[in-house]
Design brief:
- The complex is a heterodimer of chains A (647) and B (251).
- Chain A has 18 helices and 19 strands.
- Helices cover 36% and strands 15% of the residues of chain B.
- Chain B folds into 2 domains: 112 residues, Roll (Ubiquitin-like (UB roll)); 130 residues, Alpha-helical ferredoxin (Fumarate Reductase Iron-sulfur Protein, Chain B, domain 2), CATH 1.10.1060.10.
- With 251 residues, chain B is an alpha+beta fold.
- The chains are: A alpha+beta (647), B alpha+beta (251).
């Protein structure tokens, strides 16, 4: 049976969402009180969904891996949030935001989902302002906007370089209010370790209390996964240390399809890797590309002298600098989308023009901006980012150009969901980065915040009711059923198995090995031979992990190494699926770049005739190859083009 | 120029809230000054694991200075001896060859130790739950540009809103007061027209909750402002006091 039904409403693009809302089923207030909803995650998606569902009257259980919902990794988003307000009067519209997002995603996202996203974007800004989010303002008191990669209008709202923080704190305050009103029960320092399915429907979760180390059972009429992406499969990424893909992965192993796992985003402006002991990469906001100019030396000998510490970048004359993005993409210049900017940096470094001690870095230079705008203006716009850079690198970016290099940042792939954000398991929903639906093969800057809040505030609280309206006669889910018992036993066995290995290698040392393989063969440039090699090597790592990992302490107490081991076990399997999907997709699109498929100028070459589909992977058991089905992407409203940021 | 240094780390080990706790000293060799403080602790933990010992438990997550989860008291300073940064942004170039670095958890009645360097800060969440918000539901809000907010006013609100809720202010305060934290939220919302409506009620309920949870009183030592990684100003405390008094007079 084909489970893939995207449930796109009929009708013209601009009317689909309105039609859906007009005709969907709702749950009346008296019944809402009798329905329990589990929301896993407290980032922009999770917190906004939990707060909104609570306000509506549902009984919400909200789970947070950190000590407080305010720390979810959405907090680290810097640059801004897109919306189609057209306040600057520069030609923006819902349609244009939709079009830019679809094009930015290299035509691998669903039209109807993306249009809806653009449509609700304006309400998000209204909502956040009402919550007291201190967005940047002009002297007249109106909201300020800036431009961002992949767009020719200024539609990005921001709060200095801390937009994610302010939006998350807004959602967190709404959540806190709902907790105070007893609409939401909050569970902090809990990690979901499995999904419980009863009669084919998602009916609860098993979560590990990270303080006591005990497993606990929670039942609900629906489960919402808002646990973010799986970028940490690469070990080094801009994700937070606890960011992991395990909740989504458990859903996959319980039958939810996993869509487009190979669609991973490499962010062009991160602080370069500095050594083998490094645990984490730091992102520098894409907004820096508004005023910073990216360059490398024109001459290889200059690049070499810089690498050897014999020349400083400020000593390179203007005519000896190669502003390669401005050269290659005159229309968009330094503001090309992330995938394009990342590959261009790699291309220059691979060709021997890279700077920094490792040669794996390019310059992001603010000298022109400082001259044009003054240091004060630059400081007002990016002060906190410059300070962050200086603390890490010990170099003053007001005087010397910043060094940047691409790093894993975001995963467009995720749990497959239909238009209602429901997975192939009835009652299991996925929102925000955890689902796959809106960004296609590449996400534009300032769109993650938009999607997280769109899903949480304005989409899921509607669509989930279409499901829950059928559930009003279902009594509260009891957690003493055989299904809960069995699932908990399975986890206990898994933990016991891990604890009994008592091998020689730490979790991190194995994770680093996985990361090396992922970055080398499944990173920015992929090809058939490399991907096949990766799959074989990941198998070896899996064997090594399950025979050689060393986890000190006990399984049923606070145990940070066990937490990491449980996540790594899943990352290893995820890594393999990412490679499988990348191997299968014999085209280049967005963040997925197969070296066999590029234009004469080195740009991504799509094959729309063969690959206009979403890859939906189905788990078939531990030792079996997963099965892929296709959700065709039929574009009814726009014509696909080769992405062009040149003219 | 960054070089490799040999150091000793004197770390607080406490096996649970009821354990008395003690310091352990661990020597570490060839630590690059380019590595972050937490990367140094990662290396220490790797060594401990390889020796069959239990790693040091500490909170850390974004490692970009924004999530506010890191909470180490290093050489007598919350977030260490460098200025305007969180623990995760502290780098080993702050230290020299042969240094002994003392690492402790936040010490405050309201933040009990969970294990080693990890403390329980749910009290902060409870304070926010008591009123750190505007009472708006999702949807039905006016257009974002309907109410003008002067640029400088928005900037002041943003200064206060930059608080990351790490608790360094409480850890630095000899009274264990949470006034800087509370005042940052009260100020942010009192400065904006959207939050003004409930300003009095908010100030009262948040202060009451703070008192209830065992935080101390403010005696204007200013230690919180000095140690705050985000430069939250104590002028916010003045603003909180003003809001609080206004509210009390109205009663």
């Amino acid at each position: 049976m084909n489970k893939i039904d995207s449930k796109i409403p009929k009708g013209p693009l601009a009317e689909k969402w309105t039609n859906y809302k007009n005709n969907q089923k709702l749950v009346n207030p008296a019944n809402k009180r009798r329905l329990d909803v589990i929301v896993v995650g407290t980032g922009l998606g999770g917190a906004s969904a939990a707060a909104t569902l609570g306000e509506q009257g549902f009984n919400v259980l909200n789970f947070c891996i950190q000590d407080s919902p305010r720390r979810a990794h959405s907090i680290a988003a810097q640059g801004g949030i897109n919306a189609a307000k057209n306040y600057p009067n520069d030609g923006d519209s819902v349609y244009r935001l939709f079009y830019d997002t679809i094009k930015g995603g290299d035509y691998r996202a669903r039209e109807a989902n993306v249009y809806r996203l653009a449509e609700v974007s304006n309400e998000i800004i209204d909502q956040c302002v009402a919550q007291g989010v201190p967005f940047a303002r002009e002297y007249g008191g109106l909201l300020s906007n800036r431009s961002f990669g992949g767009s020719q209008v200024s539609r990005t709202f921001y709060a200095r370089g801390q937009t994610g923080q302010q939006l998350l704190l807004g959602a967190y305050s709404a959540l806190s209010r709902a907790v105070n009103k007893k609409q939401v029960k909050l569970y902090t320092r809990y990690e979901m370790v499995d999904l419980v399915i009863i009669d084919g429907r998602a009916r609860g979760i098993i979560a590990r209390n990270l303080i006591t180390g005990k497993l606990e059972r929670f039942g609900a009429h629906a489960v919402v996964i808002a646990t973010g992406g799986y970028g940490n499969a690469f070990f080094l990424s801009t994700n937070a240390m606890t960011s992991n893909g395990s909740a989504a992965w458990q859903c996959y192993k319980k039958g939810a399809y996993f869509a487009n796992p190979c669609m991973t985003q490499i962010h062009p402006t991160c602080i370069p890797v500095h050594g083998e002991f490094q645990s984490k990469l730091t992102l520098m906001s894409e907004s820096l590309r508004n005023d910073g100019r990216i360059w490398v030396p024109k001459k290889k000998e200059d690049a070499e002298a810089i690498r050897n510490g014999k020349l400083r970048p400020t000593e390179i004359k203007e005519e000896d600098r190669d502003y390669y993005l401005e050269r290659r993409y005159p229309a968009f210049g330094n503001l090309v989308p992330r995938d394009v900017a990342s590959r261009a940096a790699k291309e220059r470094c691979d060709a021997g023009y890279g700077v920094g001690t490792t040669g794996l870095a390019v310059y992001l230079d603010f000298a022109d901006a400082i001259e044009r705008l003054g240091k004060d203006v630059v400081e007002a716009r990016y002060g906190n980012l410059f300070q962050m850079y200086e603390k890490i690198v010990d170099d003053n970016p007001y005087e010397t150009p910043m060094m940047i290099y691409p790093a894993i940042h975001y995963t467009m792939g995720g749990i497959w969901v239909d238009y209602e954000l429901m997975s192939t398991i009835p009652g299991l929903f996925a929102i925000g980065e955890a689902n796959f639906s809106d960004h296609g093969a590449n996400r534009l800057g300032a769109s993650a915040l938009m999607q997280g809040l769109a899903d949480g505030y304005f989409v899921l609280p509607y669509t989930i009711q279409n499901y829950l309206s059928d559930q009003i006669s279902v009594p509260r889910i009891k957690t003493d059923s055989p299904e809960f018992e069995k699932t908990e036993n399975e986890i206990n066995q898994r933990i016991e198995r891990l604890m009994s290995i008592k091998g020689k290698h730490s979790v991190d040392s194995i994770h680093k090995k996985l990361g090396h393989i992922m970055w080398e063969y499944v990173g920015m440039n992929r090809n058939e031979a490399g991907l096949k090699k990766a799959i074989e090597e990941i198998k070896e790592i899996k064997k090594d992990f399950w025979t050689n990992v060393r986890i000190p302490g006990e399984g049923n107490t606070l145990n940070i190494e066990l937490e990491k081991a449980l996540r790594l076990a899943d990352f290893i399997e995820m890594g393999e699926l990412i490679a499988h999907d990348a191997l299968d997709r014999e085209e280049s699109c967005g963040g997925h770049f197969r070296t066999e498929h590029q234009t004469a100028e080195g740009e991504a070459l799509r094959h729309d005739d063969e690959f206009s589909y979403v890859s939906c992977w189905e788990y078939k058991g531990e030792d079996n190859v997963p099965v892929m089905s296709k959700e065709p992407l039929d574009y009814e409203f726009i014509v696909r083009q080769q992405r062009n940021y040149k003219s | 120029m960054d070089k490799d240094i040999n150091i000793k780390v004197k770390v607080w080990r406490q096996n649970g809230p009821k354990d008395k706790g003690h310091f352990e000293v661990y020597p570490l060799e060839n630590i690059s000054q380019g590595s972050s403080f937490l990367e140094m602790l990662d290396i220490l933990n790797e060594n401990l694991i390889n020796e069959g010992k239990e790693p040091v438990v500490f909170d850390h997550d974004c490692r970009e200075g924004i999530c506010g989860i890191c909470s180490l008291y290093i050489d007598g300073h919350p977030h260490g001896p460098d200025e305007d940064i969180t623990t995760c942004q502290l780098h080993m170039r702050t230290f020299d060859e042969g240094d002994t670095i003392t690492v402790e958890p936040w010490r405050s009645t309201a933040f009990p130790v969970i294990k080693d360097l990890m403390v329980d800060r749910t009290a902060f969440d409870k304070i926010i739950q008591a009123g750190g918000y505007t009472s708006v539901n999702t949807g039905g809000t006016p257009d974002a540009n309907a109410i003008l907010i002067p640029h400088d006013q928005a900037e002041l609100a943003m200064d206060a809103a930059a608080c990351i809720g790490c608790g360094a202010c409480v850890a630095a305060c000899k009274n264990g007061s949470a006034m800087l934290f509370v005042s940052a939220k009260v100020s942010q919302l009192a400065l904006l027209p959207q939050g003004k409506v409930e300003a009095a009620k908010r100030a009262k309920s948040m202060v009451a909750k703070m008192d209830e949870l065992g935080f101390g009183n403010c005696t204007n030592t200013g230690a919180c402002e000095v140690e705050c990684p985000k430069n939250i100003s104590i002028s916010n405390i003045a603003r909180l006091n003003r809001e609080f008094l206004k509210a009390k007079f109205k009663d």
